[in-house]
Amino acid sequence: MPDDAAAQREFEARIAAGETVEPKDWMPERYRKQLIRMMSQHAHSEIVGMLPEGNWITRAPTLRRKMGLLAKVQDEAGHGLYIYCGAETLGVSRAELIDQLLTGKAKYASIFNYPTLTWADIGAIGWFVDGAAIVNQTMLAKASYGPYARAMIRICKEENFHKRQGYEIMATLAAGTPAQKRMAQDAVDRWWWPSLMMFGPSDKDSPNSAELTRWGVKRKSNDELRQRFVNLTVAQARAIDLTLPDPALRYDEATKDWHFGPIDWAEFDRVIHGDGPLNRERLAARNEAHASGAWVREAAAAYAAKRAAESGGSAAAA
Ligand code: 3HC
To answer: Atom 38, ligand 1: which residue's CA is nearest?
Structure first.
């Protein structure tokens, strides 16, 4: 049944006035669907993102590094839970969202399909991946959908710790032995371009951005956020004497932007459509974890049913 035209006009006026949309408010079906798509993929990204980093918890070089990485990976699980809960306020079940991930129907951030080959990758992920996420999520903290925007506020605070611990790892390695510096530079070389892809396709190729922008979900475009990330990161790389793998990088005095070279959109398309370096392994790991956690879900459901029966029984007796 088509949305009520008057309600649609009122909704558009609310968005134009900068109002926040709450779960019980009327919203266009497209708005709801777009938010479920975006929020669930964001939540999936947080959960799948635990895999590449979890790979190094047992091999962290010091107890301090291990504690920092453990805390970060635990945070990411929490971020996933916040955003899944936010998506559920739109009338979709957690089980349905998880099934979409496990069956490959839903996307998650392409960046997590790349391997973590050395300890320096953990530094590059914190610095680049969480750094890019902060740029994106700081914008989403002003999104028109209340539960999503509010989730971003706490998540951004934790991401700042994630980025700082990653940058410190890279600064330490870059100032270390020649072999450590080479390891850091190799990680920069492998993670830089896939990190730029986190912001999505260029604006002209983005099928969702126009609608998301009109409805105040995206306050800045994919290209604007990507440019902001590059502008922030060039100085950070120079400060620790690491080189970003882009010979085309050059500063534009007029715009104050760092112009960068072409992104390999063919690689991006391959990775987001399941053909990246580790897509199959990531999905297999999530399916295995889901299967081995079935007993926890069954026990929790049995406990909830028992408690419901008990309270139902005591209510009848009262
Ligand atoms: N990885 C996988 N898929 C991507 C992608 C990426 N980096 N960038 C774009 N896509 C997909 C989109 O999902 C869309 O496909 P779909 O229509 O089937 O969903 C298609 O490519 C076209 O892209 P659009 O720009 O039209 O899509 P969006 O308007 O949704 O923009 C986005 C893409 C910028 C990723 C946006 O969805 C977004 O901001 N999402 C919320 C933030 C998020 O998901 N961040 C994940 C980072 S990981 C993370 O935060 C963990 C932290 O701990 C590091």
So the answer is: 38
Q: Is the CB of 45 under 6 A from ligand 1?
A: yes
Please report the sign of the dihedral spanned by the C-alpha atoms of residue 307, residue 312, residue 313, residue 318.
positive
pTM: 0.95
- pLDDT of 252 > 80? The answer is yes
Evaluate: CB of 209 within 6 angstroms of ligand 1: yes
Q: What's the number of CA atoms in the CB half-sphere (13 Å) around residue 58?
A: 2
Task: Determine the atom of ligand 1 nearest the C-alpha atom of 75.
Answer: 53
**What are the tokens at 155?**
């998540």
DSSP 8-state code for residue 259: E
Token digits for 257?
Answer: 């932007």
Q: Are 192 and 111 in contact (CB under 8 A)?
A: no
Q: ∠ CA(192), CA(195), CA(197), 5° rounding?
A: 120
DSSP states along 180-246: HHHHHHHHHHHHHHHHHGGG-S-GGG-TTHHHHHHTTS-SS-HHHHHHHHHHHHHHHHHHTT---S-
Where b means 16+ CB within 10 Å and e means fewer, 277-299 reads ebbeebbebbeeeeeeeeeeeee
Residues 6+ apart with CB under 8 A from 306: none
Higher pLDDT, 210 or 4: 210
Mean pLDDT of the chain: 96
CA dist 52 → 96, 115, 177, 258 (Å): 25, 7, 25, 30
CA quadruple 191, 193, 199, 204: dihedral, nearest 10: -170
Q: Which atom of ligand 1 is nearest the CA belonging to 133?
A: 50
